[in-house]
Amino acid sequence: MLEQASAWLDGMRVKHMSRRVTYTRGTASVELSATLGSTTYEVTDDYGATVEAKATDFLVSADELVLGAERTLPEPGDQVRVTEGQEVLVFEVMELGGTGHYRPCDPYRKTLHVTVVPKGMTVEPASRSLIQDDYQIDVAVQKKLNAADNAELDELMGLVEEIGDFFRRRRLDAVPDAVCVKIENVPIYAPEHISELRGFTSILTLTFRVLR
Question: Do 101 and 161 share a domain, yes or no?
Answer without folding.
Answer: no
